[in-house]
Design brief:
Distance between the termini: 31 Å
Strand content: 15-25%
Shape: globular
Oligomer: single chain
Strand order of the largest sheet: 2-1-3-4
Radius of gyration: 21 Å
Number of helices: 11
C-alpha cells in the first residue's frame, strides 16, 4: 500500500506560503576517491546525461569508467577543495541565503527558499520535503542553468516530479525552464566583465559554455541555440565588435563529437597565433565549480601559457554577488506574479 506525505490542515483563513527551490548539479561530499566515485555513479547513471542503451552503458560505467575516472576526478577536486568544502556547495548555499532575504524584501512576505542538488546532498527530494513541512503550497522551481538542456534542466524536472509524486497534497508548481536571455542575467554578466576589465584591462573575451554531444542538439535540444543567444546578447551589452569575442564549448569526454569549437583546442590555436591575451568567462555556470575552477582557471590557463599565450584571466562565475542575487530575485518575482494565495 503506497504511503503519501501529508501536511497539517491549515488554519481557516490562512494563505498558502510561497516557496522556491533552487537546484544545482551537485558535488561529492569530499574530494576523496570513494566520495567522488559515489557521486559519479549517480550522475553518470542518469539517462538524461548519457543517452545509451542501459545494459550496455551499465557495463561500460561499472566495468571501466568507475574503475578509472574517480581517482583522476578526485585529483581535480583536490585542486579546488577548500577548508569549508566544495566551492559549488559553498557558493550555492550563499546564493540561497541571500535570495531568501532579497525575495522577502521584494515580495513583502516570508518566502521559503531551499537548495537542492540533482546528485549528492542536499537532494531535491529532501529539500522539497523541507518546503512541504514548512507549509509551502505554491512552489517555484529554478534550476541554476541559464541555458536549457535535457542533460541538466530536464533532469531536474524528472527529479522534482518523482519527489512530488510522494506527496498527498501536491503544491501548485511553476518551473522556470531557462533564463538565457533574461535582461537581468545578461546585465549581471556584463557588469562582472566590466568590473574585471577595470582592474585587469580589456582583452579578447572567450565565452566558454559546457558542451553536450552534438547528436543531442540534432535531436532537438535547444542548448546550443540558447548558448549562442546568450553570447550574442552579452557581447552586445558590452559593445564588443565581432573580432573582440568568441565562443567555445568545454568539458567534452569520450570519442563522440560534441559541440565545437572545443575550448582547449581554441586556446591552443589562439596561443600559437596572434591572440596572446585572453579573458575567459563561463556564462552557463551560475556558481564556480570543478569545471570553472580546475578546468578553466587552472588547467586551461596552463595550456594557454605553455603554448605561447601571454595573459590569461578567468572571470569568476556570478556566485552570490549583488547583481546575480538581484537578477534571480527579479526573475522569481516575475514568475510569482498573478499567483493568488489560496
Amino acid at each position: 500500500m503506497p504511503h503519501y506525505l501529508g501536511q497539517p490542515v491549515p488554519e481557516p483563513g490562512s494563505s498558502s506560503r510561497l516557496g522556491v527551490l533552487l537546484v544545482n548539479l551537485g558535488t561529492p561530499d569530499s574530494s576523496a576517491p570513494g566520495a567522488v566515485r559515489r557521486f559519479l555513479a549517480e550522475f553518470l547513471w542518469d539517462p538524461r546525461v548519457v543517452e545509451a542503451p542501459r545494459w550496455l552503458w551499465w557495463l561500460a560505467l561499472h566495468g571501466v569508467i568507475l574503475r578509472i575516472r574517480p581517482r583522476r576526478s578526485a585529483h581535480a577536486y583536490q585542486q579546488i577543495w577548500t577548508p569549508q568544502g566544495s566551492p559549488l556547495l559553498i557558493h550555492s548555499t550563499a546564493l540561497t541565503q541571500r535570495l531568501r532575504g532579497e525575495l522577502a524584501a521584494r515580495l513583502q512576505t516570508d518566502v521559503a527558499v531551499e537548495l537542492g542538488m540533482s546528485y549528492g546532498s542536499p537532494s531535491i527530494a529532501d529539500s522539497l520535503g523541507k518546503l512541504h513541512r514548512e507549509g509551502v503550497r505554491r512552489l517555484i522551481v529554478l534550476p541554476l542553468y541559464p541555458q536549457y538542456s535535457g542533460t541538466t534542466t530536464a533532469s531536474v524536472f524528472d527529479r522534482v516530479s518523482r519527489a512530488l509524486g510522494r506527496f498527498r497534497d501536491v503544491p501548485a508548481l511553476r518551473f522556470i525552464a531557462d533564463y538565457h536571455a533574461d535582461p537581468g542575467y545578461i546585465e549581471a554578466l556584463a557588469d562582472s566583465v566590466r568590473r574585471h576589465w577595470q582592474t585587469q584591462g580589456q582583452q579578447h573575451l572567450l565565452l566558454s559554455f559546457h558542451g553536450i554531444p552534438r547528436r543531442y542538439v540534432e535531436a532537438g535540444d535547444p542548448y546550443h541555440r540558447q548558448s549562442l543567444e546568450t553570447a550574442r546578447l552579452l557581447a552586445q551589452a558590452l559593445g564588443l565588435a565581432s573580432d573582440e569575442w568568441s565562443i567555445a564549448f568545454q568539458s567534452q569526454v569520450g570519442r563522440e563529437e560534441w559541440l565545437r569549437p572545443y575550448t582547449d583546442e581554441l586556446l591552443v590555436q589562439y596561443a600559437t597565433g596572434s591572440r596572446k591575451r585572453i579573458s575567459v568567462i563561463c556564462p552557463g555556470f551560475a556558481t564556480d565549480c570543478l569545471e570553472t575552477l580546475e578546468e578553466i582557471a587552472i588547467r586551461n590557463r596552463a595550456l594557454f601559457l605553455e603554448n605561447g599565450g601571454e595573459s590569461y584571466d578567468y572571470i569568476p562565475a556570478l556566485n552570490a554577488t549583488d547583481p546575480h542575487v538581484a537578477a534571480l530575485a527579479g526573475l522569481i518575482a516575475r514568475n510569482a506574479q498573478g499567483w493568488q494565495a489560496a
